[in-house]
Amino acid sequence: MTTFLYARVSTAEQTAAHQLTQAEASGFHIDRVIEDDGVSGVTTKLIERPQGRRLFDLLRAGDVLVVRWIDRLGRNYADVTDNIRAFMRQGVIVKTVINRMVFDGATTDPMQQAVRDALIAFMAATAQAQAEASKEAQKAGIAHAKAMNERAYLGRQPSYTREQLATVTTLLANDAGISEIAKTAGLSRQTVYRIKDAPAEAEALIATWEARRRAA
C-alpha cells in the first residue's frame, strides 16, 4: 500500500511543501507527492492536468490518496464527485487533511454508502460555490485596484495568504472551532475572527493585493 499526496499549486503562496507539512502535521505518512504546479483548479479538469492524469495510472487498489481538501480533485461539482467515485471503484481510499474525511469504496452497508455519497456531494457542491465566490471577489478586487490606479504602490500586505483564506473559509463552512481553524491555517485567532465577521472584505483585500502585485 502506498500513500500519495496530490498537491495542486496555482498561486505563489501555495506550495507542495506547505501542503505536505500540513498533511504530516495531521498525522499522515506520505510516501509520494504528486504535484501540479501553475494549474487552475477552476478551469481544468483533474484528468486534463499533467500530474492529475498520472494519478489514474499510478494508483492501485489499497493505495491511499491524500488531499488538503476535495477541491484539489476537480474543477467543479461534477468533476470532483466523478473522480472520487472513480478512485473508490479502483479500490483507492481518499482522505482529506482538513477535517480528516475518509471515502472508502469498500463500504458495503447501504446506509453507510448513502451517507458517504451524500457527504461527497455536499462537500463538492460547497467547494464549487466557494471557488465561484472567490473568483468573483478576485474580479472585484482587480477592478478596484485598476480604478485606484495604484500600479506603483502595493500597500499593506494582508496578514494571510490566498491558501490560508481558503482554509479558513472551508473550515468555517464546516462549523470548525476558531482555535482549530487558527491552528490548521497557521493564523491568529484575531485574524480568523476578522475573516469570519467580514468574509467579503477579506476576499476583496487579498484579491486587491494580488492585483496590485501583478500591476506593479
Characteristics:
alpha/beta; 5 strands
Could you explain the architecture of this structure?
54% of the residues lie in helices and 11% in strands. It is α/β, with parallel strands linked by helices and 216 residues long. The protein folds into 2 domains: 3-109, 3-Layer(aba) Sandwich (Rossmann fold), CATH 3.40.50; 121-215, no CATH class. A 5-stranded mixed sheet has the order 2-1-3-4-5, with helices on both faces. A hairpin with a 5-residue loop joins strand 4 (93-96) and strand 5 (102-103). Helix 6 (178-185) crosses helix 7 (189-197) and helix 7 packs across helix 8 (199-215). The radius of gyration is 18 Å and the shape is globular. The model has no long low-confidence stretch (mean pLDDT 80).
Major sheet, described briefly?
Answer: 5 strands, mixed
**What's the Cα radius of gyration?**
18 Å
| CATH hierarchy, class of the largest domain | Alpha Beta
Q: What's the overall geometry? A: globular
Mean pLDDT: 80
CATH-assigned fold name of the largest domain: Rossmann fold
Beta-strand content bin = 5-15%
Order of strands across the widest beta sheet? 2-1-3-4-5
* Unreliable stretches covering 5 or more consecutive residues: none
Query: What is the share of helical residues?
Result: 40-55%
Order of helices and strands: EHEHEHEEHHHHH
How many β-strands, per DSSP? 5
Query: Can you tell me the CATH superfamily of the largest domain?
Result: Resolvase, N-terminal catalytic domain
Count every helix, treating DSSP H or I runs of 4 or more residues as helices: 8
Structural class: alpha/beta
Report how far the terminal alpha carbons are from each other: 48 Å
| CATH architectural arrangement of the largest domain | 3-Layer(aba) Sandwich
Total domain units: 2
